[in-house]
Write a structure and sequence with these properties.
Length: about 220
């Protein structure tokens, strides 16, 4: 391997498949994995639980400083409304500063780390050994999210429609790409993978061969 503790940076919009790829790559290489979206979700969740305003930057910073990256509960934090709230919290620069510091520490873990999010290749780990930008059309992403939510829902439970999910995905893209601090965009040296017409297996193999080339050749 070229470097002893490599970092794999993966960015992309909501429901692009970046999380699945990041998890699988981490497992493949025996690296640590951090879904940085969970850090923003963790702050949003604590604010919602405490009945606090999502745009109270000082309060959000205090919550961010206390956040324990080891105890982020994906099952609780995956809720759709927490994702929406997270993208509101994520526009505040001071909050980003606190979370980015914690994410950078995580990136230095041995023997290596995979981080996925929106600004990993551009801001959090600009020197990452390999950067991937995973994307897919908004329709494909909404279709996948809809299928996932429908499969998890209890019998008879009301599930958001494809149209509602598509509208939310487009709203979230706009907020994530349009904010002034660390907007979602591919790093100049990122490899783009459009998964719209790919199976998970094909996307994984494409990502794996890019990572192997970067880490070993
Ligand atoms: O990826 P996920 O949907 O869990 O992220 C929730 C929100 O957190 C995103 O919509 C985005 O606004 C924010 N986020 C961010 N930077 C990251 C990861 C997530 O701004 N690195």
């Amino acid at each position: 391997m070229k470097k002893l503790t490599p970092t794999i940076a993966i960015d992309g919009p909501a429901a692009s498949g970046k999380g699945t790829l990041a998890r699988r790559l981490a497992r493949h290489f025996g690296f640590h994995h951090l879904d940085t979206g969970l850090t923003y979700r963790g702050v949003a969740h604590a604010l919602l639980e405490g009945n606090m305003l999502l745009d109270n930057e000082d309060m959000a910073c205090l919550v961010a400083e206390k956040l324990d990256l080891g105890s982020l509960n994906k099952d609780i934090l995956s809720a759709h409304e927490i994702g929406e709230a997270a993208s509101k919290v994520a526009v505040m620069s001071k909050v980003r500063g606190v979370l980015v510091d914690a994410q950078r520490k995580f990136a230095n873990k041995e023997p290596g780390a995979v981080l996925d999010g929106r600004d990993i290749g551009t801001v959090v780990c600009p020197d990452a050994e390999i950067k991937l930008y995973i994307t897919a059309s908004p329709e494909k992403r909404a279709e996948r999210r809809h299928r996932e939510i429908s499969q998890k829902a209890q019998e008879g439970a009301e599930v958001a429609t494809f149209e509602q999910i598509l509208a939310d995905i487009m709203k979230r893209d706009e907020r994530d790409m349009g904010r002034s601090d660390s907007p979602l965009k591919p790093a100049a040296n990122a490899h783009l993978i459009d998964t719209s017409e790919m199976s998970i297996e094909t996307a994984f193999n494409t990502a794996l061969s890019l990572v192997e080339q970067a880490l070993w050749e």
